[in-house]
Write a structure and sequence with these properties.
- The chain is an all-alpha fold and 144 residues long.
- The chain folds into two domains: 75 residues, no CATH class; 67 residues, DnaJ domain (Helix Hairpins).
- Helix 3 packs parallel to helix 7 and helix 5 packs antiparallel against helix 6.
- The longest helix has 32 residues.
- The two termini are 22 Å apart.
């Protein structure tokens, strides 16, 4: 497991949609009324279950990112920056703008490209990683 901080776990809970929280509460057999609460309002008796589940989610994301980076290094695949067509120093706004252009350009409904769906997923992942400060720092360290 990677070093995931308490603050990352709290942020993960607070950024989940209500539907995602309901689903997680249901899976962990926690009363669904708690899904609408932010972390500070969450009952102590359930925090260990939630923290463990969120830690696992964050850990899984880290593993997927690491596998993606390792795959790219082995196959000389383009970086996430190259996929989005931005520089390594691009701002969040530049990344989002480029993402919107690329996603429209390669959308499966507008394109007859065989791998349009796969490329769309790759674009989404690239945007998600590069617009999240923590993930971007980690990604930059891995590709350096």
């Amino acid at each position: 497991m990677t070093n995931i901080t308490y603050e990352q776990i709290v942020e993960k809970w607070n950024t989940k949609t209500i539907q995602e929280r309901y689903k997680l509460c249901h899976e962990l057999h926690i009363p669904s009324k708690h899904a609408e609460k932010n972390w500070k309002e969450f009952p102590d008796k359930h925090t260990d279950k939630i923290m463990s589940a969120l830690h696992q989610e964050l850990d899984d994301v880290d593993v997927r990112q690491e596998e993606f980076v390792n795959h790219n290094e082995q196959t000389n695949s383009p970086t996430l920056y190259e996929i989005l067509g931005v520089s390594k120093h691009a701002s969040d706004e530049e990344i989002k703008t480029s993402f919107r252009k690329q996603i429209l350009k390669f959308h499966a409904d507008k394109n007859n490209i065989d791998d349009a769906d796969e490329f769309s997923k790759l674009l989404i992942e690239a945007k998600d990683v590069l617009t999240n400060h923590e993930k971007r720092l980690q990604y930059d360290r891995q590709i350096s």
